[in-house]
Specification:
Length: about 400
C-alpha cells in the first residue's frame, strides 16, 4: 500500500496574532511544523510527505523541510484549497492519503497508523475524541430574554458527540470525490460526508491538540516535556524538575561562632571546620549540585584550597546557584532540617530563610528550614556535633 501524507500548513494563523505563521513557532526548542512533518516523514507506513505552505514560506523554506520523502507545494486561500494542491502533487500510486494539520505537532505514530488502516479498510477515517463535557446546542437570544448573549436551546446526548482532530485519511478515490465539493468546509471528513461516504471514527488522543491561540503554547510545552520523559532519546534535555539531597555534619567546639545559613546564632559552642562550617549552606549546596549531577561541594570548593579557608558559605552557595543557572536551570524550592541539641534556633529561622532565599535567587516562600533535636542520642544528642539535611528541586528556566 502506498501512502501519501499531506500536511496542511498554508494558514496564516490569524487567530494567533504572532508576526510569523504560528506553525513556525517553537515548542520546547523545535518548530511546531517541524514536529508535525517529522511525525509523518519518519513513519514506517508513510511513503511520501507533501507540505502545503504559505507563499512567503515557500519562497524560503526552513531547513527541516529539506528532507527525504518531503515535497513542498504552495497552499491555497482556504485549508481545502491547500489540501487540493497537495492532492494534485501526490504520487499516482497513492492508495491512501492521510491529511494532517500542521498545528497538531503531537499526533503519535500509533494514531497515524490506526487512521491509515481504518481508511484503507473503510474508505474514510477521522481521528476524533469522545466529548468529556456535557454539550449544549446554543443560539443567540432572538425573542427570549432581553440580555444579549447565547442561550441553551438543547442539551445534546454526550455519547453521540465526537470532536474531530486530524489525521484524517481517505482512499484516493474518496478524497478525489470529496475535494470536488468546493463549498467551505473546516475539514476533509465533512466533504467526504457530503460526497456520500461513511467516515469511520478512530479514537483520537487528548495530547493531539491543535495550537490555535497563544494559550495553547503553554499546554504544548507541557505535552512536549511529557513526551521527553517517556522518550528520553528524543529529548534535548529533560526540562522538568530535578531533585537533589544534601547532608552535612560538623563537630561543635568552644571558641568558634555558630553560623547557620549565614546567621550567627548566640551559642557557647560553634562548628569546627575549614570554612565557616555552616552546615545549612553546605547541605543546601550539595542538594542543588546533586540535582544537576554536578558533584558535591568538596569538588567545587575543596578544603585543601586556601581560597576557601574561612570562606563565607553563603558565597559558596551563591557560586553553586550560578552553576545551576549556567545549566539553564533555576531553583524551585529548598527544604532543610537542622539537627542540633542546643541552643534553640526557632527565633532565627526567618533570618536564615531570608539569607538562603537571597543566595538561591528565589522568593522566601520557596525556602523552608526546620529545627530538630536528636533526643539526647548519639554525638548530636550529646551536643558534640550539628547536622543538617536538605532537599532541593531545580527546574528548567
Ligand atoms: Mg560542611
Amino acid at each position: 500500500m502506498h501512502v501519501t501524507a499531506i500536511i496542511a500548513a498554508g494558514g496564516r494563523g490569524q487567530r494567533f496574532g504572532a508576526s510569523q505563521p504560528k506553525q513556525l513557532l517553537d515548542v520546547d526548542g523545535e518548530a511546531i511544523l517541524a514536529r508535525s512533518v517529522r511525525a509523518f516523514a519518519t513513519h514506517p507506513s508513510v511513503n511520501e510527505v507533501i507540505v502545503a505552505l504559505p507563499d512567503d514560506v515557500m519562497a524560503n523554506p526552513p531547513a527541516y523541510l529539506r528532507a527525504d520523502r518531503v515535497r513542498l507545494v504552495a497552499g491555497g486561500a482556504r485549508r481545502q484549497d491547500s489540501v487540493t494542491q497537495g492532492f494534485l502533487a501526490a504520487s499516482e500510486q497513492s492508495d491512501v492519503i492521510v491529511i494532517h494539520d500542521a498545528a497538531r505537532p503531537f499526533a503519535s505514530a500509533d494514531l497515524i497508523a490506526r487512521t491509515i488502516a481504518a481508511a484503507a479498510d473503510s474508505g474514510a477515517a477521522v481521528a476524533a475524541l469522545a466529548s468529556r463535557d456535557t454539550v449544549k446546542l446554543v443560539s443567540p437570544a432572538a425573542d427570549g430574554p432581553a440580555q444579549a448573549g447565547h442561550y441553551v436551546r438543547e442539551t445534546l446526548d454526550r455519547e453521540t458527540i465526537y470532536l474531530a482532530q486530524t489525521p484524517q485519511a481517505f482512499r484516493r478515490n474518496v478524497l478525489s470525490d470529496a475535494l470536488a465539493f468546493t463549498d467551505d468546509a473546516t475539514d476533509e471528513a465533512a466533504l467526504a460526508e457530503r460526497a456520500g461516504y461513511h467516515v469511520r471514527i478512530v479514537q483520537g488522543e487528548a495530547t493531539n491538540i491543535k495550537i490555535t491561540t497563544p494559550d495553547d503554547l503553554l499546554m504544548a510545552e507541557a505535552i512536549a516535556n511529557q513526551s521527553a520523559i517517556r522518550n528520553p532519546q528524543s529529548a534535548i534535555r529533560v526540562r522538568t524538575g530535578r531533585a537533589g539531597t544534601g547532608y552535612d555534619l560538623h563537630r561543635l567546639v568552644e571558641g568558634r561562632p555558630l553560623i547557620l545559613a549565614g546567621v550567627t546564632i548566640p551559642s557557647d559552642r560553634g562548628a569546627l571546620g575549614h570554612s565557616d562550617a555552616d552546615v545549612v549552606c553546605h547541605a543546601v549546596t550539595d542538594a542543588i549540585l546533586g540535582a544537576l549531577s554536578l558533584g558535591d561541594i568538596g569538588r567545587h570548593f575543596p578544603d585543601t584550597d586556601p581560597r576557601w579557608k574561612d570562606a563565607n558559605s553563603i558565597d559558596l552557595l551563591t557560586r553553586a546557584v550560578a552553576l545551576v543557572h549556567e545549566q539553564g536551570y533555576e531553583i524551585g524550592n529548598v527544604d532543610v532540617t537542622i539537627i542540633l541539641e542546643r541552643p534553640k534556633i526557632k527565633d532565627h529561622i526567618a533570618a536564615m530563610c531570608a539569607n538562603l532565599a537571597r543566595a538561591l535567587a528565589v522568593d522566601v516562600s520557596r525556602v523552608s528550614i526546620k529545627g530538630k533535636t536528636n533526643e539526647g542520642v548519639d554525638a548530636v544528642g550529646r551536643g558534640e556535633a550539628i547536622a543538617a539535611q536538605a532537599i532541593a528541586l531545580t527546574r528548567a528556566r
